[in-house]
């Protein structure tokens, strides 16, 4: 039988993994086995955190809206504000409301007064 020289496919695969992990620190970027483990871990974390990022931003927007709604009135909260918003059928999402609350407080006050009356 003829001699088969292996290694091209495996080297190409390892090179691809090593390129992915080139920014990792220490053995995580040098040793093949730990590199593959760290690569799997990084991909799992990035997949998990894509949905977590959406969740975190929604929480941030809700916190900002709540802070602005409670500034002026004593017994007015975020939940009442959103409830009245849906009752009046004003279709503004939380991201836009948080941006308005931060940048243009007068506009946010006008919106909240329209909702209450």
Automatic annotation (TrEMBL):
Major location (coarse): plastid
Gene Ontology terms: biological process: ribosomal large subunit assembly; translation
Designated name of the protein: Large ribosomal subunit protein bL20c
Keywords linked to the UniProt accession: Chloroplast, Plastid, Ribonucleoprotein, Ribosomal protein, RNA-binding, rRNA-binding
GO CC term (a single one): ribonucleoprotein complex
Role summary: Binds directly to 23S ribosomal RNA and is necessary for the in vitro assembly process of the 50S ribosomal subunit. It is not involved in the protein synthesizing functions of that subunit.
Source taxon at top rank: Eukaryota
Keyword Chloroplast appears in the UniProt entry: yes
Subcellular location: Plastid, Chloroplast
UniProt xrefs under Pfam families: Ribosomal_L20 (PF00453)
UniProt-listed Gene3D superfamilies: 6.10.160.10, Ribosomal protein L20
Family label: Belongs to the bacterial ribosomal protein bL20 family.
């Amino acid at each position: 039988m003829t001699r088969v020289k292996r290694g091209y496919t495996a080297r190409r695969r390892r090179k691809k993994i090593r390129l992915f992990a080139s920014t990792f620190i220490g053995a995580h970027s040098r040793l093949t086995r730990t590199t593959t483990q760290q690569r799997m871990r990084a991909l799992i974390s990035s997949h998990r955190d894509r949905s977590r990022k959406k969740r975190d931003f929604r929480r941030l927007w809700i916190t900002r809206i709540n802070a602005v709604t409670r500034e002026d009135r004593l017994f007015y909260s975020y939940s009442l504000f959103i409830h009245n918003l849906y009752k009046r059928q004003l279709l503004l999402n939380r991201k836009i409301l948080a941006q308005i609350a931060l940048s243009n407080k007068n506009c946010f006050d006008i919106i909240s007064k329209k909702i209450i009356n």
